[in-house]
Amino acid sequence: MKVTQHIKEANGKPLFSFEILPPVKGKSIESIFKTLDPLMEFKPSFINVTYHRSEQIFKKKKDGSFERIDIRKRPGTVGICAAIMNHYSVDAVPHLICGGFTKDETENALIDLNFLGIDNVLALRGDPPKNEKYFSPDPHGHSYAIDLVKQIEMLNRGQYLEDDIDGGVHTDFCIGVAGYPEKHYESPNPDLDLMFLKNKIDAGADYITTQMFFDNEKYHGFVKKCRELNIDTPIIPGLKPLTSIKQLSAIPSFFHVDIPNELALEMMKCKNDKDMELVGTEWLLAQTKDLISAGAPVIHFYTLGKPQVVYNVMKQIL
Ligand code: FAD
Question: Are 280 and 252 in contact (CB under 8 A)?
Answer without folding.
Answer: no
